[in-house]
């Protein structure tokens, strides 16, 4: 209990209860009224105090003269805003002078209706609404009059206008800014907020308001600024950075050159003027990380280590790992970890990704092979900005440029997306086109392709990158690459698809049934749709006989009896097939299914597996789309190797012979076997071996012929 002198007591009575969350100024005003003074101004005049105000310190000094218990005095001093320097100390917290309003008093009408006394939290300007009732905290009564500073009654104004009015049932809304503030003041259970708990309210209140105001720009959010800001910063440092990312996304044209000030505007400027140095560091660091995260791949999440790791300079990375500082900055920007500070743009956690990035870079040769272009062609792609190069990756040693694999893959994706708008009949392969143009290098042509300055006519099968492209020259070529476009077929493709001998195809060309699109030396180009129409209409007599199980002579007699004439007739010592119209044969023999096409499920399954293995082992091997009943002679596009295939559905076998037949071997497959993989691998291995032998013989022959021609010229 304080020492007191009866002659110095400010009051005769002081028995009013001091409420748990009451402000000392409110209790002091009520006590003045209890002792008969109509206003605090009268009390001040009688006690030699200021006639125009009553400071909290003066009220506390007068209160300490009363014979109150030490506990009561501690509670009253706790609830008094005591000025220390440029701040108030209130409820154990430091707050700015501008954060509280001592005069004129503010109040919640619903709270006053329940119990008329002045709460401590009424004075906090950040609270716009009552945390219990949701009513607006006001400083005017219903008639628009303010409550004067000298008032001693907190239930009504001087003219009798009541300050309170009934409201909703009082209940604190948990998890709000008001809940956090009341917890910090000691009036409610404290709400944890990892970042804010490290700071006094003089930092907490302005940062919540500033962030909330910035977040509400351009939105329809109706919540108060402090409430919005608190929802952003109530979590961890990393969660604050994540909450700031939507503010970055709203910036039109955001890219790596966008500054933090452009992203956060007034909030960034205010951080440097209003916040303490420590709070400014926390907020600006979160802003930097939010901007940095938006430059990283989609789905990147900010971790706590990202915002709390030690900052390092690019020079420090160079000293430790031997990577030039400028290259470190370039890589950091590439992988999105550059933190937008010139002196210390990185953190410790960024170094492992940078080292991993360097380890995965590839040299010029590997990059050129990936794009299927010459090594010198990479320079043009670099100059045009389609790929980036990374240099000085080892200080004091020249390693040559290194390339980022995703950059190369992006170029390949651009190539795949290019539409084939050119004419395949006036086209040349990529490499041949570059050679045909004087002064045009691989790289220059690659840039023209990516910029759309030349037309792509098609792509070579089973070739990747730039060399797969077929470029439209605009002029008729001697040897157009019809196989680069699936809508066009060469003569060898037509033979395989129709299952006709080449002599038969030539005969149909003479008859005008199969018309090539252009007459070139050693090459004929056919439209796929024309060939498909012929395949649907005509078939070999051999295939019909195989399906019906009769001889070709019996078929000839049957067709003669029915008056069906073949389109093409085979002659003695001729390799021309006899060709019939499918529909006429089926009508003459009263058939509902095409006999020329094999329908056995196991045979069809074998045929599909045979084509799949052939595509992997010998892409040049040509097949019909489906097995023909009379078998097929499968040939290479090189015209060197052939492989006759025949079926016997009675014995359930397929026979394949690697020509020439006298050299063999002969492969027999059981259609009812569980699998044919081993036999097919052996078949194609032998075919590859035979193809190599034929190629060597042809090469030796050509060399000998050229040598003989040179000797003749010499003589």
Highlighted features:
715 residues, alpha+beta, 4 domains, five-stranded antiparallel β-sheet, three-stranded antiparallel β-sheet
Give me the secondary-structure topology.
Layout (H helix, E strand, L loop, with lengths): L23 H11 L5 H7 L9 H8 L6 H9 L3 E3 L2 E4 L2 E4 L12 H6 L62 H9 L15 H16 L8 H9 L3 H13 L10 H14 L3 H19 L8 H5 L2 E2 L1 H8 L3 H11 L10 E2 L3 H10 L3 H8 L5 H7 L5 E2 L11 E2 L1 H13 L9 E3 H7 L5 H10 L4 E4 L9 E4 L15 E2 L1 H8 L3 H10 L7 E2 L2 E2 L1 E2 H10 E3 H8 L3 H11 L16 E3 H7 L12 H17 L3 E2 L9 E5 L5 E7 L4 E5 L8 E5 L6 H38 L1
Antiparallel strand pairs: 1-2, 2-3, 4-5, 6-7, 8-10, 9-10, 11-14, 12-13, 15-16, 17-18, 18-19, 19-20, 20-21
Helix pairs in contact: 7-8, 7-10, 9-11, 10-11, 13-14, 14-15, 17-20, 27-28
Protein name: TniQ protein
Organism: Mycoplana azooxidifex
Describe what you observe in this structure.
- This is TniQ protein.
- Helix content is 43%, strand content 10%.
- With 715 residues, it is α+β, with helices and mostly antiparallel strands.
- The chain folds into four domains: 6-182, no CATH class; 192-308, no CATH class; 415-535, no CATH class; 600-715.
- The strands form eight sheets. Strands 17-18-19-20-21 form a five-stranded antiparallel beta sheet.
- It starts with 23 loop residues before the first helix and ends with a helix.
- Residues 710-715 have low confidence and may be disordered.
């Amino acid at each position: 209990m304080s020492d007191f002198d009866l002659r110095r007591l400010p009051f005769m009575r002081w028995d009013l209860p001091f409420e748990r969350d009451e402000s000392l100024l409110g209790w002091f005003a009520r006590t003045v009224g209890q002792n008969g003074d109509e206003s605090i101004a009268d009390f001040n005049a009688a006690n030699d105090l200021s006639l125009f105000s009553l400071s909290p310190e003066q009220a506390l000094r007068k209160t300490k003269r009363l014979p109150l218990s030490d506990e009561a005095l501690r509670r009253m001093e706790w609830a008094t805003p005591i000025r220390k320097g440029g701040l108030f100390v209130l409820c154990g917290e430091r707050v700015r002078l501008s954060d509280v309003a001592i005069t004129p008093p503010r109040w919640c009408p619903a709270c006053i209706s329940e119990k008329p006394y002045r709460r401590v939290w009424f004075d906090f300007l950040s609270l716009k609404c009552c945390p219990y009732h949701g009513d607006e905290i006001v400083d005017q009564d219903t008639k628009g009059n303010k409550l004067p500073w000298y008032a001693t009654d907190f239930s009504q104004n001087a003219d009798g206008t009541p300050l309170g009015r009934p409201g909703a049932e009082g209940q604190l809304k948990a998890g709000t800014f008001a809940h956090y503030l009341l917890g910090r003041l000691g009036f409610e259970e404290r709400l944890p907020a990892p970042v804010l708990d490290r700071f006094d309210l003089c930092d907490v209140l302005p940062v919540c308001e500033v962030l909330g105001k910035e977040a509400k720009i351009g939105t329809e959010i109706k919540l108060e600024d402090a409430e919005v800001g608190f929802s952003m910063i109530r979590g961890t440092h990393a969660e604050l950075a994540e909450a700031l990312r939507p503010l970055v996304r709203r910036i039109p044209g955001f890219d790596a050159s966008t500054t933090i000030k452009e992203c956060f505007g007034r909030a960034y400027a205010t951080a440097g003027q209003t916040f303490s140095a420590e709070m400014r560091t926390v907020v600006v660091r979160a802003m930097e990380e939010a901007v940095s995260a938006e430059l990283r791949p989609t789905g990147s999440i900010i971790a706590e280590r990202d915002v709390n790791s030690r900052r390092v300079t690019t020079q420090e990375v160079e000293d430790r790992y031997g990577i030039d500082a400028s290259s470190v900055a370039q890589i950091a920007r590439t992988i999105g970890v550059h933190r937008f500070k010139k002196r210390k743009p990185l953190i410790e956690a960024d170094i492992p990704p940078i080292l991993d990035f360097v380890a995965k870079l590839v040299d010029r040769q590997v990059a050129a092979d990936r794009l299927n272009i010459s090594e010198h062609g990479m320079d043009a792609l670099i100059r045009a900005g389609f790929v980036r190069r990374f240099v000085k990756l080892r200080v004091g040693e020249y390693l040559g440029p290194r390339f980022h694999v995703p950059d190369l893959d992006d170029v390949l994706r651009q190539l795949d997306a290019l539409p084939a708008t050119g004419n395949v009949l006036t086209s040349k392969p990529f490499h041949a086109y570059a050679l045909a143009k004087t002064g045009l290098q691989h790289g220059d042509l690659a840039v023209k392709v990516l910029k759309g300055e030349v037309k792509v006519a098609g792509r070579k099968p089973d070739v990747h990158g730039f060399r797969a492209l077929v470029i439209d020259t605009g002029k008729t070529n001697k040897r157009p690459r019809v196989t680069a476009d699936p809508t066009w077929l060469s003569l060898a493709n037509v033979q395989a698809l129709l299952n006709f001998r080449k002599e038969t195809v030539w005969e149909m060309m003479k008859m005008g049934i199969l018309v090539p699109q252009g007459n070139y030396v050693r090459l004929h180009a056919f439209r796929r749709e024309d060939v498909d129409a012929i395949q649907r209409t005509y078939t070999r007599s051999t295939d019909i006989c195989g399906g019906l199980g009769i001889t070709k002579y019996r078929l000839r007699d049957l067709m003669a009896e029915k008056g069906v004439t073949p389109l093409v007739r085979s002659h003695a010592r001729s390799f021309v097939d006899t060709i019939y119209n499918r529909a006429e044969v089926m009508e003459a023999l009263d058939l509902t299914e095409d006999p020329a096409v094999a329908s056995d499920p196991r045979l069809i399954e074998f045929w599909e597996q045979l084509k799949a293995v052939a595509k992997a082992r010998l892409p040049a091997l040509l097949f019909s789309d489906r097995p023909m009943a009379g078998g097929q002679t499968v040939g290479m596009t090189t015209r060197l190797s052939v492989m006759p295939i025949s079926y016997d559905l009675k014995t359930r076998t397929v026979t394949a012979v690697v020509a020439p037949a006298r050299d063999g071997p002969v492969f027999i497959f059981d259609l009812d076997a569980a699998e044919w993989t081993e036999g097919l691998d052996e078949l194609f291995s032998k075919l590859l071996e035979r193809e190599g032998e034929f190629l060597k013989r042809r090469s030796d022959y050509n060399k000998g012929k050229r040598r003989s021609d040179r000797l003749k010229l010499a003589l």
